[in-house]
Amino acid sequence: MSQFSENLLSNRDDHYTKTSKPSSTSKLNRRSSVDLMEELANSRSLGRNWFKILFGSMIGLALVLIAGFGLAVQLEMVDTGDPMKSFRGKTDCKSCFPLTVRGDQRHLTFELGFSSDTGCQLLTVMCGKETGTEAIVQWYHDGKDLGVSFMDHAGQSRIVRKLPCNDNGEYELDENGEKGAINEVECIVAEAHEEL
Description:
transmembrane helix; transmembrane; membrane; single chain; Immunoglobulin-like
């Protein structure tokens, strides 16, 4: 062995023997390795904490989205009127539940007022264009088809019906002597040269 190798080995042996005193640099190295181990343990713990925070945030966000979706669905149910029928209760004829519009709404117009005879709310429904169309109004109550209204005479471009509010808060249609409560309407318009 060379002199350099022997010195290196003897220094190594001196460093690790129990009888020899460790040098000040070895104490620093030992401390730093302990510090390094503690730092490593802390960083693992910190990583776990970040994972818990991130995972908890994702679950919280998912719950908020689910609750928001549920609320949106319920608000939509209020507009349609069908699922909420049992919750409507009694009202008077001064305020009616809104009609749900099916299909295309471009040619459907509403005017809200009050009947001078009864003081009840009165809704005027107009379906069609000013000129050059043929129209049909389809009426429904809680999804059940109640029939259609046609134009009253040839050359007419709009259908106009006045719907008074009843004591249950529903609009009533009086068509050909038959009365019925309605809560949905659909306006079907044929453009030029189409047949209904």
